[in-house]
Design brief:
Blueprint lengths: L2 E5 L2 E4 L4 E8 L7 E7 L6 E7 L4 E4 L7 E6 L4 E6 L8 E8 L10 E4 L3 E6 L1
Parallel strand pairs: 2-11
Antiparallel strand pairs: 1-3, 3-8, 4-5, 4-9, 5-6, 7-8, 9-10, 9-11
C-alpha cells in the first residue's frame, strides 16, 4: 500500500517561507507524477505544482508560479514545495499526491493522496 507522508506545515507570519515535504512509502517503486494541491473548506481543490519525476519537468497552476517551487530528491523519494512571500490567503490545507500515469496536470490521475498539512499565515 502506497503511503504519502507530508511534513513541514505550520504557522508563519506574512512574507515568510515554509518548505513542505512529501515522502513516498514504500520506496521500492517510484511514482511517475508527484503533485501539490491545496483545498479549503467548501472549496475546490487547487493545483499548486506537479512534477514529472522521470524527466524532472515541472508544471504550475495558474498564479502559482513565482512564489511556489516544486522539486524532488529521488534518492529520498521525497518531493518538496518551497513557499515564499506567504500571504494570509495561503492559510489552507496542503496535500501531496502521486500518480502512475504521465498526465501530471490532470488531477484525476492522482490515486494516492497524503493526509494533508495545515499552513497558517498570520498578518
Amino acid at each position: 500500500q502506497v503511503q504519502l507522508v507530508e511534513s513541514g506545515g505550520g504557522s508563519v507570519q506574512a512574507g515568510g517561507s515554509l518548505r513542505l515535504s512529501c515522502t513516498v512509502f514504500p520506496g521500492s517503486d517510484s511514482r511517475i507524477c508527484m503533485g501539490w494541491y491545496r483545498q479549503g473548506p467548501g472549496k475546490e481543490r487547487e493545483m499548486i505544482a506537479t512534477i514529472y519525476t522521470t524527466a524532472n519537468v515541472t508544471y504550475y497552476g495558474d498564479s502559482m508560479r513565482g512564489r511556489f517551487t516544486i522539486s524532488q530528491d529521488s534518492a529520498k523519494r521525497t518531493t518538496y514545495l518551497e513557499m515564499n512571500s506567504l500571504k494570509p490567503e495561503d492559510s489552507i490545507m496542503y496535500y501531496c499526491a502521486a500518480a502512475d500515469l504521465p498526465f501530471c496536470n490532470a488531477e484525476k490521475v492522482y490515486t494516492y493522496w497524503g493526509q494533508g498539512t495545515q499552513v497558517t499565515v498570520s498578518s
